Amino acid sequence: MKQNQQVPARYPRERKHRRFNLQFPVWLTFPSSGKVWELPAVSKNVSTGGLLLKTIDPIPPHTRVSLTMEVQGPWSRRPVRLQGEGEVVRVEKLEADTGFAIAIECRQPISEIENNLPAD
Prior knowledge:
Structural class: mainly beta
Number of helices: 1
Helix content: under 10%
Shape: globular
CATH class: Mainly Beta
Number of strands: 6
Distance between the termini: 39 Å
Strand order of the largest sheet: 1-2-3-6-5-4
């Protein structure tokens, strides 16, 4: 092997932020075709830098979205409403026509997560 060649990664890329395994309702708002759309979703996992959602309808990559998620459970000291803005970075069709997985990268960290929720 030449010195300039890179060895393919054998291990997954390390994530920047801890993931939280949360399945809570999320409401997305985004502009499209001159209108503002609202789309319900359910979180699959959440981090301070973004979240993965399951939706019935897709949202095009690079779409800017506003999101609201309210979480509560035995591990939280109080109900927590998470709000943020981000950009759709990945959209994948789920198996058996069950909807879409949408990854959103948040513009600013969602700081409430670190203080109120257990890590996955």
